Amino acid sequence: MTTRLLWLDHLLTFMLTAVYGSDSTLEGLRMLLPLAVLLLLVLPSHAQDTTTEKPAVLLPLPKGVCNGLMAGIPGYPGHNGIPGRDGRDGAPGAKGEKGDAGLAGPKGDTGETGVTGVEGPRGFPGVQGRKGEPGESAYVYRSAFSVGLETQVTVPNVPIRFTKIFYNQQNHYDTTTGKFHCNIPGLYYFSYHITVYLKDVKLSLYKKDKAVLFTFDQYQDKDLDQASGSVLLHLGTGDQVWLQVYGDGEHNGLYADNVNDSTFTGFLLYHDIN
Ligand SMILES: [Ca+2]
Ligand SMILES: [Ca+2]
């Protein structure tokens, strides 16, 4: 405030001197100074704010005051300055959000076949299947006989008639002729077990009027013998099989009684498919 009063005192002195130029009147007008000071104290001055911003400095008087010259007209505003340089680059910004997923690429090539894996555990048993269709009746493929000798053979070179029936359900063995008649084509098994007594035996198994199997047993006194033979034969429908003594008629020692049997047996083993 003291600086402001001094500055105002100088300003009034300058102005009065410039107008009147007399010391006598200057002293009279100087009396008005307290009024001006009072006015400055009453008026709200924004200059008071400036006192808080800058330290109080005693401003120099304008030039020419001492010489008593009048101040010049304020000059024109100066030109705009040159634009300043570009500022420094700013700090990198924050990381942005993750973008959307791209489109699926094309299908790749087929890879190589992998190594064969270990065999898995055994599975559970499956469901039982349906019952099969009934097969062909087995009865039509049955053919079997088993017969025995009841009387001593006396006539050679004719079929031996076995009349003791063990089995002949299909009647394929004819007891009146002593021949087996084939009704089912297929493979047959034939066998005979005979007792030999008092004479030698030469026995043949015949198939269609031809001897195919031979048995010869020589008899010795008081020495009962047994002889046998067996064979597999394929027969066609109508073929006949029987036993017959061959030779000149002196070899028909086949024998049978209540404790000795001579038997002839045959049966179908496999029938032909077609
Ligand atoms: Ca013998
Ligand atoms: Ca014997």
Automatic annotation (TrEMBL):
One of its GO terms (biological process) is response to tumor necrosis factor. GO terms for molecular function: hormone activity; protein homodimerization activity; protein serine/threonine kinase activator activity; sialic acid binding. It is found in: Secreted. Keywords: Collagen, Secreted, Signal. Residues 138-274 form the C1q domain. Residues 85-100 have a biased composition (Basic and acidic residues). InterPro entries: C1q_dom, Collagen, Collagen/C1q_domain, Tumour_necrosis_fac-like_dom. Pfam families: C1q, Collagen. Residues 1-47 form the signal peptide. It comes from the Eukaryota. Residues 79-131 are annotated as: Disordered. GO terms for cellular component: cell surface; collagen trimer; endoplasmic reticulum; extracellular space. This is Adiponectin, C1Q and collagen domain containing. It comes from Rhinolophus ferrumequinum (Greater horseshoe bat).
